[in-house]
């Protein structure tokens, strides 16, 4: 696939994956894509697509999998981004909780449109001193 140049963020949702708790903090509302939030997300998404080491992933055609199925259902309009993100957040939380890294993060699921079609972004924003959420 050629490099992505034109990015439009359609919708997104954030969940908090704090491994110091027993459950992820799941949001029930979509992100308010005001100018500040939109530009924050766009900056991160553009940085990903501009990375010269980027490798595009595709699900194997004959491989069943829940993430593949859910992603396709979302892209085909059969499931909302909210419902998709709740399932992904619970799965990611379980992975983080059972890992040895003990790293908390925010999970941002975004729907984007590009010149190559619609895409689903799954961004894991590890906590850093220069990054905070509210």
Written overview of the protein:
This protein is α+β, with helices and mostly antiparallel strands. Helix content is 33%, strand content 23%. It contains three helices and three strands, in the order E-H-H-H-E-E. It has helices at residues 35-50, 66-75, 81-98, and strands at residues 7-17, 105-114, 117-126. The protein has a three-stranded antiparallel β-sheet. A hairpin with a 2-residue loop joins strand 2 and strand 3 (117-126). The longest helix has 18 residues, at 81-98. It starts with 6 loop residues before the first strand and ends in an 8-residue tail after the last strand.
- Rg computed from alpha carbons, rounded to a whole number of angstroms: 15 Å
Structural class: alpha+beta
N-to-C span: 36 Å
- Shape summary: globular
What is the helical fraction, as a range of percent? 25-40%
Number of helices: 3
Task: Output the strand order for the largest sheet.
Answer: 1-2-3
Q: Mean pLDDT, rounded to whole units?
A: 86
Low-confidence parts? none
> Can you count the beta strands?
3
- Residues in β-strands, percent: 15-25%
Return the string of H and E elements. Answer: EHHHEE
The description of the largest β-sheet is: 3 strands, antiparallel
Short description:
The chain has helices at 35-50, 66-75, 81-98; strands at 7-17, 105-114, 117-126. The protein is an alpha+beta fold.
Summary keywords:
single chain, 134 residues, alpha+beta, three-stranded antiparallel beta sheet, 3 strands, globular
